[in-house]
Amino acid sequence: MKDRKDDQTVSARRDFLKLSTLGVAAAGAAAAIAPAKPAEAAEPEGSGYRETAHVRTYYETARF
Amino acid sequence: MSANAGGLKHRDAAVAEEDLLRAGVYDVLAAVFRREPDSILLAELRKLQGDDTTLGRAFAALAERARTIDPTAARHEYTDLFIGLGRGELVPFASYYLTGFLHEKPLAVLRDDMARLGIERQEGVAEPEDHIASLCEMMAGLIRGRFLEPAPVRLQRAFFERHLAPWAGHFFSDVEAAKSADLYRPAGTIGRLFMEIEAAAFAMEE
Question: Which terminus of chain A, N or C, has less C-beta within 10 A?
Answer without folding.
Answer: N
